[in-house]
Design brief:
By secondary structure, the chain is of the alpha/beta class. The chain contains 11 helices and 17 strands. The strands form 4 sheets. A 10-stranded mixed β-sheet has the order 3-2-1-4-5-6-10-15-14-16, sandwiched between helices. The chain binds NADP nicotinamide-adenine-dinucleotide phosphate (NAP). This is UDP-N-acetylglucosamine 4,6-dehydratase (Inverting).
Length: 336
């Protein structure tokens, strides 16, 4: 799919961006160009050490801010596919600095859409999060707005054959700032802070996230929000898996935090279809023939009222499976 194509990843130096870059080079050795778009020159410098031009002549590092539409237009010249992963993603930082979060997550989404429409980009996949579903914090609300912008962009593209779709998933195991590296670090202090004993989260590996983005790039017809079927874990099980002997210190729920995360609400169920490995929420008025889409993908409508919630999920990680996953995906030298 990507051989001979140019792909630009906003937020290419982040956890997902780096995993995508690795996947693209290993799966599509004939890729024309991979452009990493982000702000911090130091992160780009470090990533460039892993991808020396002598071995990766197709890689480019482009400094820029998604708040700057003109810079995006410049970066998108000759680009076929855009993966929009740049975001402010820390819930508490967004609560404290709302203007900054709005500028990056909403303004950035608008700029990516406008720049893609002004250039010859054919396909844009934007990253969402479970926190965008029935949001209670600003991060989630900005990502919901971003999702709406990308879905609606398909309505204003006219005869431009570009497609916009969204990929929504839950906590990425071991990603920057996530709970598992945090607990592994805190274990050294002899106790683990825990906000609430009932808390659950969806769990996806970085490779799972990469696979979903690739699925969206290959199969989106435009306007879908793709959601993976993934297990949940109890935060108490994560604590047991990492430090079974450490006492837990209850520190109370943080601003903007939910006990359980949701990826599909009962209200979304009216537009949600089961694709087998994934669910998809379709636009209420898709710009394709619904019946054609459903028969092409053998998609089945979920029951009205269905919701997909980390607390009522049927699929759970256990302490043992978590330990195996931590060794596989977070820290190969992990020991209890
Ligand atoms: N990690 C998770 O658990 C998780 C779960 C669900 C969804 N997501 C979503 O997945 C996406 C990627 O997450 P991640 O974990 O890879 O994030 P990350 O590791 O924090 O990386 C964020 C990337 O975005 C760049 N960035 C931030 N602000 C920018 C701006 N204004 N302009 C240009 N680049 C900017 C950062 O580089 P600079 O700072 O150098 O600009 C970095 O490359 C995000 O959209 C996030 O909302 C993540």
């Amino acid at each position: 799919m990507l051989n001979n194509k140019t792909i630009l990843i906003t937020g290419g130096t982040g956890s997902l961006g780096k995993a995508l870059t690795k996947h693209i080079f290993s799966t599509y050795p004939l890729v024309k160009k991979v452009i990493i778009f982000s702000r911090d020159e130091q992160k780009q410098f470090q990533m460039a050490q892993e991808y020396p031009l002598s071995n990766y002549p197709q890689i480019r590092f482009f400094l820029g801010d998604v708040r700057d539409e003109q810079r995006l237009v410049r970066a998108f010249q000759g680009v076929d596919y855009v993966i929009h992963a740049a975001a402010m993603k820390h819930v508490h930082l967004a609560e404290y600095n709302p203007d900054e979060c709005i500028k990056t997550n909403i303004g950035g989404a608008q700029n990516v859409i406008h720049a893609a429409m002004q250039t010859n980009v054919k396909n844009v996949v934007a990253l969402s999060t479970d926190k965008a579903c029935a949001p209670i914090n600003l991060y989630g609300a900005t990502k919901l707005t971003s999702d709406k912008l990308f879905v609606a962009a398909n309505n204003i593209k006219g005869f431009n054959p570009i497609k916009f779709s969204v990929v929504r998933y839950g906590n990425v195991m071991g990603s920057n700032g996530s709970v598992i590296p945090f607990f592994i670090n805190k274990k050294k202090e002899g106790k683990l802070p825990i906000t609430n004993m009932s808390m659950t989260r969806f769990n996806i590996s970085l490779q799972g996230g990469v696979d979903m983005v690739m699925h969206a790039m290959e199969h989106a017809w435009g306007g879908e929000i793709f959601i993976p079927k993934i297990p949940s874990y109890r935060i108490t099980d994560v604590a047991k898996a990492i430090a079974p002997d450490c006492p837990l210190e209850i520190v109370g729920i943080r601003p903007g935090e939910k006990i359980h995360e949701e990826m599909i609400t009962a209200s979304d169920s009216f537009y949600t279809y089961d694709l087998g490995k994934y669910y998809t929420i379709l636009p209420s008025v898709p710009n394709f023939k619904l019946q054609e889409y459903l028969s092409h993908f053998n998609a089945k409508k979920v029951e009205d009222g269905f919701n997909y919630n980390s607390g009522s999920n049927e699929d759970w990680e256990t302490v043992d499976t978590l330990r195996t996953l931590i060794t596989e995906h977070v820290d190969a030298n992990f020991e209890v």
